[in-house]
């Protein structure tokens, strides 16, 4: 006995005004295991069709109230977005009858009487076609869901610029409904000049570069509901299908990004102006014109726009040279401002020809009173007698000071023996300085910790070893330049994380004034 296949997942509407034919169809469909709905004329068939939403319709041609051809046309109007196979069943089997049935919207035409074998084969064919169509519908639904939920606008249009599809995000960019966009020209969505430029770019792409070319993103403008200008970034690509070439555009609103960029440019310009003004005020306060003593050479390299390191040099009325290398905690403008209270006090005290202990005491008193508790200034102070025969050195929280000869050989090192300035209250008696004698040509080298901590690409610090090696590479008169070159070679292009400063003071007698 032959086992017939079943199609249990489908629902079938069978329509025939003849009871015997209806019973035969019911029997055939029962063998296939499908759910069956019955109607006796075209109007009743439409009512059942609307109510039950069948997957397949078997439709007689000649019926009272409404014939099958009319019913087929009305059903097809109801299923423009969702395919439902319609099979016409008729005793009329002429070529003209078949053509009329297919033109009414039917997908197939069977002539009565119908054998079960032929009926089953037709139903299996429809089942396979339906499976493919339903899978395609699910994919289309998923793609539509994705398109409607993404934040970027999606628009599809033809080579003539007419919009074929648009998602909700695209419609919201232009304050329209997605359905209202279909049929419009994509060029009309933008300001006239931008729309015409887009048209020209697309023509150039199609003619000059071929269908496979993807146009780089461009920026277009459109008018918002309040007439404010919106800036949209469009990424355009071309697709080719059986209907020809279409363009797919991805639109992103970059108006806020452009607004922020404009504000940042304005802020940057204002900040640069204010920084330049602050730099000028700081330099005037420091008195950079005073750093021209022939006994002093220095280098300052800020890690940011402002340096927290400071070099001050001045001579007293009796010719005694005083030099300060200071390193305020932190970086940038805050660090630069931290050292300003010491500037005027340094110059005021030097005019009084103090001892180095008195100068340290005075600077500490001013900074301790002026700075917040978390702020302080590491410093190295050096004084050299007018005849350059002796010097005093005080180091508070700074790297060692090197006493070197003219060839760069290290003769002696003076380490930090005190806390940075501004940390605690000092008395003149508790300030301890190193006293040393100097020979002609000898020099004192001081630096900030940015020199020691300058790192190579592998993370190795320059350190004291780098200082000594760099000095050995120099010659008399070029020691600081040689040290700076060695530091640059060591860093190999990496950006130092801290301000870098170096101060070289030579044992040079005061020049006689004419």
- Low-confidence regions: 206-214
Strand runs, count: 20
Structural class: alpha+beta
How far do the termini sit from each other? 134 Å
The fraction of residues in strands falls at 15-25%
Main sheet properties = 5 strands, parallel
Give the overall pLDDT as a whole number: 83
Radius of gyration, in angstroms, nearest whole number = 46 Å
Number of helices: 15
Q: Please bin the fraction of helical residues.
A: 25-40%
- Give the overall shape: rod-shaped
Strand arrangement, largest sheet? 2-1-3-4-5
Notes on the structure:
It is a single chain. By secondary structure, the chain is of the alpha+beta class. 39% of the residues lie in helices and 25% in strands. It is built from 15 helices and 20 strands. The protein has helices at 19-32, 42-52, 68-78, 95-103, 116-149, 168-173, 178-181, 192-209, 255-286, 332-338, 340-350, 356-370, 449-452, 463-472, 479-491, and strands at 11-15, 35-39, 56-60, 86-90, 108-111, 153-158, 163-166, 215-223, 229-241, 244-253, 296-301, 309-315, 321-328, 377-384, 390-396, 401-404, 410-414, 434-437, 443-447, 500-506. The strands form 4 sheets. Strands 2-1-3-4-5 form a 5-stranded parallel beta sheet, sandwiched between helices. A 5-stranded antiparallel beta sheet has the order 7-6-10-9-8, with helices on both faces. The protein has a 5-stranded antiparallel beta sheet with strand order 11-20-19-16-17. The longest helix is centred in the N-terminal third of the chain and has 34 residues, at 116-149. The termini are far apart. The model is unreliable at 206-214 (pLDDT under 50).
């Amino acid at each position: 006995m032959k086992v017939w296949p079943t199609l249990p997942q489908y629902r079938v509407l069978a329509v025939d005004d003849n009871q015997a034919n209806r019973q035969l169809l019911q029997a055939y469909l029962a063998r296939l295991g499908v759910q069956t709905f019955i109607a006796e004329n075209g109007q009743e068939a439409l009512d059942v069709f609307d109510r039950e939403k069948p997957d397949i319709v078997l439709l007689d041609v000649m019926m009272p109230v409404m014939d099958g051809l009319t019913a087929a046309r009305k059903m097809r109007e109801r299923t423009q977005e969702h395919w439902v196979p319609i099979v016409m069943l008729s005793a009329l089997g002429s070529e003209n009858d078949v053509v009329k049935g297919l033109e009414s919207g039917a997908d197939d035409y069977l002539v009565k009487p119908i054998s079960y074998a032929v009926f089953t084969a037709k139903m299996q064919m429809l089942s396979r076609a339906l499976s493919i169509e339903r899978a395609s519908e699910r994919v289309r639904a998923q793609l539509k869901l994705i398109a409607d939920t993404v934040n970027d606008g999606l628009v599809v249009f033809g080579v003539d610029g007419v919009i074929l599809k648009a998602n909700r995000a695209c419609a919201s960019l232009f304050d329209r409904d997605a359905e209202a966009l279909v049929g419009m020209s994509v060029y009309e969505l933008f300001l006239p000049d931008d729309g015409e430029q887009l048209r020209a770019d697309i023509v150039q792409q199609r003619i000059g570069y071929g269908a496979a070319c993807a146009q780089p993103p461009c920026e277009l403008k459109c008018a918002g509901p309040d007439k404010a200008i919106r800036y949209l970034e469009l990424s355009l690509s071309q697709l080719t299908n059986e209907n020809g070439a279409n363009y797919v555009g991805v639109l992103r609103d970059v108006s806020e990004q452009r607004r922020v960029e404009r504000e940042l440019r304005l802020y940057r310009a204002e900040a640069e102006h204010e920084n330049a003004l602050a730099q000028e005020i700081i330099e005037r306060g420091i008195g950079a014109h005073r750093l021209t003593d022939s006994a002093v050479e220095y280098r300052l390299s800020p890690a940011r726009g402002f340096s927290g390191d400071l070099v001050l040099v001045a001579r007293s009325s009796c010719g005694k040279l005083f030099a300060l290398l200071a390193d305020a905690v932190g970086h940038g403008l805050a660090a630069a401002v931290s050292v300003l209270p010491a500037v005027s006090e340094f110059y005021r005290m030097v005019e009084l020809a103090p001892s180095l202990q008195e100068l340290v005491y005075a600077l500490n008193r001013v900074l301790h009173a002026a700075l917040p508790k978390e702020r302080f200034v590491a410093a190295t102070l050096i004084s050299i007698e007018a005849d350059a025969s002796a010097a005093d050195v005080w180091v508070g929280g700074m790297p060692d000071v090197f006493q070197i000869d003219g060839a760069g050989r290290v003769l002696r090192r003076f380490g930090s023996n005190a806390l940075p300035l501004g940390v605690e209250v000092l008395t003149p008696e508790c300030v301890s300085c190193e006293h040393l004698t100097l020979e002609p040509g000898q020099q004192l080298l001081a630096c900030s910790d940015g020199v020691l901590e300058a790192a190579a690409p592998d993370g190795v610090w320059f350190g004291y070893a780098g200082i000594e090696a760099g000095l050995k590479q120099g010659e008399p008169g070029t020691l600081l330049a040689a040290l700076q070159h060695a530091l640059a070679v060591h860093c190999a292009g990496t950006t130092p994380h801290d301000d870098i400063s170096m101060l070289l003071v030579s044992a040079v007698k005061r020049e006689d004034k004419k």
